[in-house]
User: What shape does this take?
Amino acid sequence: MDTSFLSAGTDPILTCAEAMDFERSLLTDSGAEWDAMKQVGAALGKGIAFEYGLSRFRRKELHALVLVGKGHNGGDALLGLAELCRLGLIQGATLLFAAPEAELKVNTRRALGEFRDRDDCERVEYFPAEDEMATYLERIESALAGKRFDLCMDGFLGMQFHPPLRQVAKGLIHLANELCSCRLRVAVDVPSGVGDAVDKAAFRADVTFATGVGKAGLFLREAHNFTGSIRYLDVGFFDKASFRGKKEMLIKDSVLGPLRERRPATAEKRQFGHLMIVAGSRHMPGALAMCVMAALCSGVGLVTVVAPESRVAALSARYPEAMWVECSETPDGGLALENLYLIRRYMQRGTALLVGPGMGREPETIELARELVRQWKGPLLLDADALQTSVVEALRENEPSRAVLTPHAGEMKRLAGTADAKAWTEDLGCVLALKGANSRVYFGGNEYVNTSGNGVLSRGGSGDLLSGILGGLLANGAWSPEEVAVMSVYWHGKAADLLAYHCGQTAARTTQVIDCLSDALVEEDVWSSV
Assistant: This one.
């Protein structure tokens, strides 16, 4: 299998120790460090502006509180703040330093100097004197009492942190977490107090920007309450490096490269696959409708939908691009088992089969799904109501590696009875796309972590959209089920990010994500929207 584009579209997740060794080998002098910090700062500023834009608060004349450590995280935070100023978003900034200015690293002092040279931002600085550490926190708390900030940036402690937090560090973090009113809390690289281990008093971020390298500590279960959303700032660190054998990877924007290509002048519909969808019920036609809508926007050449006869007339009028097959229903409105003979007549036309959305859980309908899994020989997607133990176990009889399963955490627990999705997937031999914040794709011992997407997807139907996208790409036949799953979760999440930036996260409909799929294929990060 050619996974060259998948390799180019992912970067390894490293422990903090591995990341430190890697960065030392890559950034061999102060000049190289400074160049990398400037890249990170520019990307960080744009990323923060985008994340702040997911709210509906005003996006200019912002007041920022910045925790500045003496290391490079502090310099990155200052350069990110300078980029926000350049974008015209910051009116005033309050800087809290964890060490006297003389103790800052060379490039952190350089970043501070560049920020001080700006005249487009009001600035207040608090430095601790060497002999007043005991009273420093009291002085800051008194000075900031009652103040409100739009943005709080944590550039205090970096990946070299080891528990426990020291007194001044704990005090500054407590100030940011509990005492200051702030609309968006941002951690630079890692939240202070999070490394290869996690302190219980760590900085609580709404969003963490992993800068250059995704650190494994961010994805620890005990770090979930501190990281918020995790965004990856790819600044090209891995262009000249290879981490062969790494099993945990971050998905990045270049994974969508194959979907951006121009189609040949001689292209015709059958080149791009024929997706068969078996889904829906009398009582849940919406799930089927959203799945079909997304499949039609996935680039697939043909779509045939096998659906309950009572819903075909209305849905076919709404989505005439698909071909519709009326099927008999159970008394409760599900697909009857007797449809198996009819569906088999159409099977030879399809290049992939999608089963599940809105199908219901009647025993007869589940038996139909089980028989389809046993008899279908091609690429297969099981979602929603098809994710039943009897249906999934039928995969073992018929090449499970051809199948993609798309459960959320609740469905995963019901199916596997274990928190170890990776081991369960390896045992079954299928591809698993585990939906949720930072959706994960598992296959063959590999784990791909997605950092696109946001709370706009916490709505009914977002999984049905993903299944339609994934089913369409699976039918294309150009990529393996593993590659399709990785592309799909990132594309789906990126479209949701664009929707949230333009419409906010509250007053949006699930189906509006589809309207952003085209823009999500543009070859640039979502932050270019700023």
About this structure: The longest strand covers residues 90-97.
